Amino acid sequence: MKTTKSLFFVEDDLSFGAVLKSYLEICNYTITWLQDGKHAVSAFREGNFDLCLLDVMLPNVDGFAIGKEIRSINPKIPMIYLTAKSLKEDILTGYRIGADDYIVKPFDADVLVYKIAVLLRRAEGEHGNFDHLYTIGKYIFDSRLREIKLDESKQLLSPKESALLQLLCENKNELLPREVALKRIWGDDGYFTTRSMDVFITKLRKFLKDDPSVEIRNIHGSGFIMTLEN
Hints:
CATH class of the largest domain: Alpha Beta
CATH topology of the largest domain: Rossmann fold
Strand content: 15-25%
Number of strands: 12
CATH superfamily of the largest domain: Response regulator
Strand order of the largest sheet: 2-1-3-4-5
Largest sheet: 5 strands, parallel
């Protein structure tokens, strides 16, 4: 029975590729690394992979063409582009092909590992090993470490801030009733705890302000809803 996850990695930069491969192996992933686009699709067909990491600018066949072929072979496998191509049209092309994420170099390797974990969990529907990790737009939230990461920046949360954000994540795009959050985190839903929670919501909005696709809205008299634009 397969225990470690197998990643399909296509990258022609030998220095960058070697460093990232070693780091991912330290994180207990098995890596199949190709440096040329020419044989990438045939190598993918011959293997059994859990997730793809693709550069765009490759010798012979570019990463977008490879991604299209992979999507036709396996429509459900998680796919992340790792590339220096940062133009809006390139990013949109990646997502149109079916990428789950598009990460512009340089990037934080820890953030990549978190995103890989979240996508693998989503693909398998399992919550055992990675149930403390949440994607919130461009952010990665680790409820175990009480930490929000965006690229190389980190924001440490207080226990109550973390617990409230976790509830919002678990009810993403759905109403989180005010009384549910108050009783679960503060233990009562009195006036002063209600005002206290409003302060915490304001803090969370500030922590997530650098991604305009993330919004925590106040539903008057009912509670809060965290919405994420697609």
